[in-house]
Design brief:
Layout (H helix, E strand, L loop, with lengths): L6 H28 L4 H29 L5 H21 L15 H27 L8 H25 L20 H26 L4 H21 L7 H44 L9 H16 L4 E8 L2 H8 L1 H17 L6 E4 L4 E7 L3 H16 L16 E8 L6 H17 L5 E3 L2
Parallel strand pairs: 4-5
Antiparallel strand pairs: 1-3, 1-4, 2-3
Helix pairs in contact: 1-7, 1-8, 2-3, 2-8, 3-4, 3-5, 4-5, 4-6, 6-7, 7-8, 10-11
InterPro entries: Diguanylate_Cyclase (IPR050469), GGDEF_dom (IPR000160), MASE4 (IPR033424), Nucleotide_cyclase (IPR029787), Rev_trsase/Diguanyl_cyclase (IPR043128)
Pathway: Purine metabolism; 3',5'-cyclic di-GMP biosynthesis
Catalytic activity: 2 GTP = 3',3'-c-di-GMP + 2 diphosphate
């Protein structure tokens, strides 16, 4: 079954490329032409920046792969950028005084262009390999043996290309190619008519393979496609000049550096997105661990942990009141109306409790139909008043006023205890409030009793 081509994503991508490339090209063109004096030292300087940027991207890809071994396709991209960074060392070696960022008369432009040629070949081929690995990532290929075999192939290809680039760059008389005349700085016919166009075609194949295979289904592949388009445009910029002394030589390197920096920003955005998603999942998981799933009140363990954490405030003269409550004749409601209706009753009471406390207080469900409130810095008199208000709010509702949440009028019995010093433990405080609640039950239910 053929996948439907994502025309809308493609149009978005085209728009991004047009705007992005035009802006980057305008900036690089204006910068080079208005500051011509620094153009000779700009090339080695930008090459050093590019080497650092590509190393960063390679490390980033390796780290993402180590976090999720199913993303084997990232290792192809890591290998591409790592190889590119190594080849930039060769490019810097073509500039004898690169470490001084100064101009020199002994620059080997031919070697620099050879390293540039091999960088393009390595990156384009490994980008295509990455896309292929992405397309088959859901298949049963993630065994240790397969990973070693594929990684060995990636590293082997990169090493072979690195060795060839070193041999072709004035290190072997049998393997040599002239892309630039180092005396006249003129591009050769081979570069103008064959090599440059061949690189454009290879990057176009890479770009279309990436778009049609990945369907541009996330920001990562959007950035990868944009990166391919930038390299195509860089080659076209080089075509516009006839020699390495022209502005196009320096503008192409500046454009490449800025577009790579843009890719790093996109990767940082990807990291931020993953962090935000992970943080959201963690917060949701944490909330689920401390809340009752039916009522979304806090659960029993959180109630006790909060009470323990509040003990130091009691020592400072801030009393903490505990209200334990239990629905009256709740078993009869379950037996008569069913457990689903019983759950609705529990949820209704939970909302009343939650609406009756302050933000820094704790409302918890500590049993089937048993609830507890933890009131911070609250005296016994105020706690009793709050409990009475809750009791009346619940008893005054019936089926009509509760929007069918209650099948009939219900009542609640409540016990109150206030801790004013540290002589009573947390468990004992709750036990005393619970005992006061049972006294309310024994006294006829639907009332509040303060422990004495």
């Amino acid at each position: 079954m053929l996948l439907k081509f994502p025309l809308q994503r493609f149009l978005i991508y085209i728009t991004i490329c047009l705007i992005g490339i035009l802006l980057l090209n305008h900036f690089s063109n204006v910068f080079i032409r208005h500051v011509p004096a620094i153009a000779p030292i700009l090339f080695p300087t930008l090459t050093m920046f590019l080497m650092v940027f590509h190393t960063m991207i390679a490390v980033f890809m390796v780290m993402k792969y180590l976090c999720d071994r199913r993303r084997l396709y990232l290792m192809a991209i890591a290998c591409a950028f790592a190889s590119s960074a190594v080849l930039m060392l060769g490019t810097l070696n073509s500039y004898p005084t690169w470490f001084l960022c100064g101009a020199s008369d002994n620059i080997n432009y031919n070697d620099a262009l050879i390293f540039y040629f091999f960088r393009n070949i390595i990156m384009a081929v490994l980008f295509i390999t990455s896309v292929v690995l992405y397309a088959i990532k859901s298949r049963d290929m993630h065994s240790m043996r397969n990973h070693i075999f594929i990684l060995g192939g990636l590293f082997g290809f990169a090493i072979v290309m690195l060795v060839l680039s070193w041999l072709y760059s004035s290190h072997d008389s049998l393997l040599s190619v002239k892309l630039v005349d180092n005396n006249t700085f003129q591009y050769s016919e081979i570069w103008n008519n064959i090599v440059n166009w061949a690189l454009v075609v290879i990057w176009l194949i890479t770009l279309f393979t990436l778009i049609f295979t990945t369907q541009l289904n996330n920001i990562f592949w959007y950035s990868g496609a944009f990166f391919c388009a930038c390299y195509i445009f860089t080659l076209l910029v080089l075509m516009s000049g006839q020699d390495t002394a022209s502005y196009s030589w320096y503008q192409a390197r500046l454009f490449e550096t800025i577009s790579t920096l843009f890719l790093i920003f996109v990767l940082f955005c990807d990291v931020f997105t993953l962090y935000r998603q992970s943080n959201t999942k963690y917060l949701n998981s944490y909330q689920n661990s401390i809340r009752d799933p039916l009522t979304r009140l806090f659960n029993r363990s959180y109630f006790y942990d909060s009470f323990t954490a509040l003990q130091p405030t009691i020592a400072n003269g801030h009393p903490v009141s505990v209200i334990v409550s239990d629905l009256d004749h709740f078993k009869r409601i379950n037996d008569k109306y069913g457990h689903l209706q019983g759950d609705k009753v529990i949820q209704f009471v939970a909302r009343v409790l939650q609406d009756s406390v302050r933000q820094n207080d704790v409302a918890a469900r500590i049993g089937g139909e048993e609830f507890a409130l933890l009131l911070v810095n609250t005296s016994p008199e105020v706690a009793r008043t709050i409990a009475e208000r809750i009791r009346l709010a619940i008893s005054q509702h019936d089926a009509g006023s509760s929007n069918a949440q209650l099948p009939e009028s219900i009542t609640i019995s409540m016990g109150v205890f206030t801790a004013t010093d540290l002589s009573v433990s947390v468990e004992e405080c709750v036990r005393r409030a619970d005992e006061a609640m049972y006294r309310a039950k024994a006294a006829g239910r639907n009332r509040v009793v303060v422990w004495e």
